[in-house]
Write a structure and sequence with these properties.
By secondary structure, the protein is an alpha/beta fold. It is built from five helices and nine strands; from the N terminus they run ααββαβαβαβββββ. The protein has one domain: 3-Layer(aba) Sandwich (Rossmann fold). It is 25% helix and 28% strand. The strands form two sheets. The protein has a seven-stranded mixed β-sheet with strand order 5-4-3-6-7-8-9, covered by helices on one side. Strands 1-2 form a two-stranded antiparallel sheet. It starts with a helix and ends in a 9-residue tail after the last strand.
């Protein structure tokens, strides 16, 4: 069975994982705490795995790709939509540090509880996982970075109002990953990366 460090080394070798602070997060936040025991032998294989309720913990190389495109920094305020078992929330907590904050939102109540429990293995007082509301994201708040881990059918423009000017949104839309940068209140830049598969975003 592969080790965590072998998995991380493989993703680095594939040239997906590049940034030292993101690599450090992958090494510090062990995926084993977020994978159901049923799948423990698969923990360090580069695959998505079931976590119940038709949801998955994403493939590590895909998570790495999305975090590289998101480019979170120390001190950022981050929203993690579709936090699942909590792995991406924990990775983001490690990256932004105590100067930042991370809010994970998840629509499946049993996964909210599971994610909260998994996150408790780490001393991340600046991160939490909440039950998602009827509307996508957290309307009324503004974030430096927004990460979405499930695929939308179309670009959810309501998230742009939850993004600070200068902020970045990374989200799967159908089978592509999109990166949006908010240049001003009226200008959004977008870039698409093709060839991915995600569970659907439901809200």
């Amino acid at each position: 069975m592969k080790t965590m460090h072998e998995l991380v080394d493989t993703i680095i070798f594939s040239n997906v994982l590049k940034s030292p602070h993101i690599i450090d997060a992958f090494r510090a936040v062990d995926r084993k705490y977020f994978v159901p025991r049923t799948w423990k032998n698969e923990t360090y294989i580069d695959n998505a795995l079931p976590i119940g309720n038709g949801q998955t913990i994403s493939q590590p190389s895909t998570v790495a790709f999305m975090l590289e495109k998101l480019a979170p920094q120390k001190g950022d305020k981050v929203l993690d939509i579709g936090s699942g078992s909590g792995w991406t929330t924990a990775l983001l907590c490690h990256i932004v540090g105590e100067e930042g904050s991370v809010i994970g939102v998840e629509r499946v109540s049993t996964l909210v509880e599971q994610g909260q429990e998994n996150l408790s293995h780490f001393n991340f007082d600046h991160g939490c996982i909440k039950q998602a509301g009827e509307k996508l994201g957290l309307p009324g708040e503004a974030f430096d970075r927004i990460l979405v881990s499930a695929a939308a059918d179309e670009i959810p423009k309501e998230l742009f109002s939850q993004l600070k000017v200068g902020g970045t949104l990374v989200i799967p839309v159908e089978n592509s990953i999109y990166r949006f940068k908010k240049i001003s209140e009226t200008q959004i830049e977008q870039e698409a990366f093709y060839g991915f598969i995600f569970v659907p975003l439901i809200y």
